[in-house]
From TrEMBL:
Alphabetized InterPro entries for the sequence: AGC-kinase_C, Prot_kinase_dom, Protein_kinase_ATP_BS, Ser/Thr_kinase_AS, Ser_Thr_kinase_AGC
Residue intervals of the Protein kinase domain: 23-281
Keyword Transferase in record: yes
GO molecular function, one term: ATP binding
Protein's name in the database: non-specific serine/threonine protein kinase
GO BP annotation list: intracellular signal transduction
CDD domains in the record: STKc_Yank1 (cd05578)
Keyword ATP-binding listed: yes
Organism of derivation: Paramecium primaurelia
Amino acid sequence: MGNCNNSKDVNFDDVSLPSKTDFHMLFVIGRGGFGRVWKTENKKTKQLYAIKEMSKCKIVNKKSVSSVMNEKYLLSNLRHPFLVNMHASFQDRENLYLVMDLMQGGDLRYHLCKQKRFTEKQTKFFIVCLLMALDYLHTNTILHRDVKPENLVFDRNGYLRLTDLGIARIWKPDNENDTSGTPGYMAPEVMCRQAHGVASDYFAVGVIAYECMFGKRPYVGKTRREIRDQILAKQVLVKLNQIPDGWSEESADFINRSLQRKPSNRLGANGPEEVQNHPWFKDIDWTSFFNQTVVSPYQINCNHDNFDSKFANMREEEDNQTIQQNGLMLRRQSVQDLFNGYTFDQTITQVPFQNTSVTKPTIPHLNTQQLTSARRTNLEDTNPQLSQISSKKYHLVSSTPRLQTKSMSSSQKPQTDRSHFSNKFQFN
């Protein structure tokens, strides 16, 4: 995609805002909590996109208005090659629509179910992709809070991208009441209603790496309480005699450190560099990964559907009473007003794409419980529900992350200090 930065001024009087009529809705490729995901084609440009269609009635009934407005707000201010980026958003009387990058490789959950488990080389590749995305979010003081295989999707080149910012939040202190997430991937401090920071996302990274290694999660249960009780009862560790053939001790140590129950002991508690400096990544050229010039060890066949078509096309039956109640709800102006400011067009607001020609940034350390207050203030100084034409809001988060960068050729690797990992692998 390259750098789409364009300095040409926009005359908003001449702007035509996006709508459903701009797209051919080709077929359903997935389902979400509020509706369906469509493969679509822009009628004018012939460009393919995914459109996330969400029912306003379901959103209101599930008390999730703030969640969907928050997702749109964050996506309109973020743009990165390891995120599934938003290009536009719009609405009609019944639904909200998010126009997103089309990812035709399916999600990691689909491929886990098909493959059962992955090789170490494949898993390391997946984890590096995920770390790239989390670096960007964390440096912009955002916690994803729902990192899981369903929210990691493949592009046609086998690279993973992180999606679904519905429950992502700009970090703030005293967040012990923010307990959203998916049991099995939620960090212990989140499940136990304690204040949490970036280390909570890295716990989920450890769970995913463990799942790729063994084909199952480290803590399994039917309910949130069962999983929480398991976590409190025992610290899961990959032991030396449990490491599968073809996997290294470094990989097991990475998982063990990521799954530490105490966040201050967890890998990533001191920021992204601590994770990148782990010996498991000693052979990683971060610049090449950032520029996506490394060939993926897991090849995607995009000539067939990489999703469960039966689930995607499953119809939800609604009785006449529900249909009537929903119709009355949508007629109320107070309900429609809940979604004011949802419309957005990236081509109008000119939020540029991350320049993938730059080198991999050097990322400052972020404490588990503390993030730079100035950055958080910059992100919070605007009401997420301001109108789409507000010029102020589109400068909150730069497309090029607000990070330090250093000049580095593609053959050079970041200088790392792995001395604190030497001979300290955790297998006991």
